[in-house]
Design brief:
The chain is mainly α. The chain has four helices and no strands. Helix 1 runs antiparallel to helix 2 and helix 1 packs parallel to helix 3.
Length: 105
């Protein structure tokens, strides 16, 4: 996975977790997250394009493959099953609780 897709993946996870913390119905999470996901995707796409135009990415086939990977992951996030978001959110909360419990014992 290229650096642009990795950064988008991290941003998408944060966006979904924030959306889940704001929305009570898991089905609304994907709808609530669509616009922030779009802008996170466009930001990474723009960074990739700037790097290509400034010759940091020199191979055009590599550039288009990286664009495709980023776009595939973006589409996957748009159609993500809400239960996966709920589980991810619950795991993250549990990790924080465990960390705090261990810290204060």
């Amino acid at each position: 996975m290229n650096e642009y897709t990795q950064r988008f993946k991290k941003a998408a996870l944060e966006i979904h977790i924030l959306a889940y913390s704001r929305e009570s119905n898991p089905m609304d999470v994907t709808e609530y997250a669509k616009r922030p996901l779009k802008y996170a995707f466009l930001e990474e796409q723009q960074k990739m394009e700037n790097d290509y135009l400034s010759n940091k990415i020199q191979d055009s086939i590599e550039y288009y493959n990286m664009q495709a990977a980023l776009y595939r992951y973006y589409l996957k996030q748009l159609h993500l099953d809400p239960t996966l978001i709920v589980n991810s959110y619950n795991r993250r909360i549990q990790k924080k609780r465990d960390h705090l419990r261990d810290r204060f014992q």
